[in-house]
Structures are given as structure tokens and as C-alpha cells.
Design a protein that fits this description.
By secondary structure, the chain is mainly beta. The chain has one helix and 13 strands, in the order H-E-E-E-E-E-E-E-E-E-E-E-E-E. It holds the Pfam family DsbD_N.
Amino acid sequence: MTRRRALVAALAGALLAGGCANSGGPSSTTDRSGRLEAGGVTVEATLTDGPDGGRLRTTFRPQRPGFHLYSIDLPPDGVQGLGIPTVVAVRGSLDATGAASADMPVSNLRIEELDVDLPVYPDGPVTVTLPVRSTGDGPAEVVVTYGACSAGTCLPPVRERVIALT
């Protein structure tokens, strides 16, 4: 029985220590989000603030199957004027603290007739993550630019549309 009591006491002590270490009041993580539907794509942006800064996760989801988005690596004016890069920026009470990254690999879409390679994501959704920090109280806004295409057609591009995070 002595070993059992010692084990129970050790477990209770560990639980109490963990509980005390995590009892600094309310969680320091808050989520704010916003949504946009434009250009055949649903865009959902979620901001998670934490003690080490924040992360803005913006998911671009084409509304029809077979559509892809252009890469964040596409030059601002496209390649030979073709394509529109996926861009996630912040303004208002947010500042970007690093470069954006995407959760999907980039592949080159070859257009033989024009001798052009365009960097695109696979068909379907892609999430772009941007490290951010809060600069104070006030509105937090995400500004997005993107274009969605299929093998045969492109949807109207969306340029500098604002998503308010609430």
C-alpha cells in the first residue's frame, strides 16, 4: 500500500504543478475571422494571436471542381502578362512579420502555344499562412488578390479585396 500511496501522491503533485503552471488567467489565444466569396472562390481568413505573435491562415477554396489558383511566387504582373498571383496582405491593426507560405506544392502549368510556364497550385483549396503581429486596437483587415482557372477557362480575377476580421 505504501508504493501505491507514493504513486498517487506523485501523480497528484504532477497534476497540481501542471495546473498551477497553466493557471495564468484566460488563454492568451484569440481567434478572429472573416470570409469573402468572389471570382468563383470562397476565401476564409482566420487570425490566431498568441504570446509569440500571430498567424493569419487564409484558405482559398474554388467553388467548382477542376479549378486552381496561381502561386504566391508568380510575379506581380504574371508571366508575359498571364496569370495573377495569390496575395495575402494585412492592414489596420496588423503588420506582417515574415513572408507568406502555402500548404500546397507549386507545379508549372505549361502553355505550349505561348511558350510559357505558370506556377500554380493543384486543383482545389490552398491555405496561405502569414506571420503577423498586432499593432494595437482597431480594425484588423486582410487584403487578398487571386485568380482561379481550370484547364479551359479563367474566372474573373479578384484584386485587393478587403476581408474584415471580427
